[in-house]
TrEMBL record:
Entry protein name: Uncharacterized protein
């Protein structure tokens, strides 16, 4: 399970919230699409 990622500044204030599953899917699928093993299937 992947959760939202909270980014804090050095004072402990919430700076931004990253949508964990969305970012993970974008990066993971981009890497898998480039993989030669997935191209063969």
């Amino acid at each position: 399970m992947i959760y939202d990622i909270k980014v804090f500044d050095k004072h402990g204030k919430l700076k931004e919230v990253i949508d964990g599953p969305k970012v993970f899917n974008e990066t993971w699928y981009a890497d898998v699409a480039k993989s030669p093993y997935m191209m063969e299937r």
